[in-house]
Amino acid sequence: MTTEGHICFAISSIILIKKIKLINFITSGDWWHVILGSLITCLLPDIDHPKSFIGKRFKWLSIPIYKLFGHRSFTHSLLLIIIIIIYVNIRKINISVDVIYAMIIGYISHIIADILTPAGIPLFWPYSKKFSIPIIKKSNVRLERLISIIIIIYAIQY
Question: pTM of whole model > 0.70?
Answer without folding.
Answer: yes
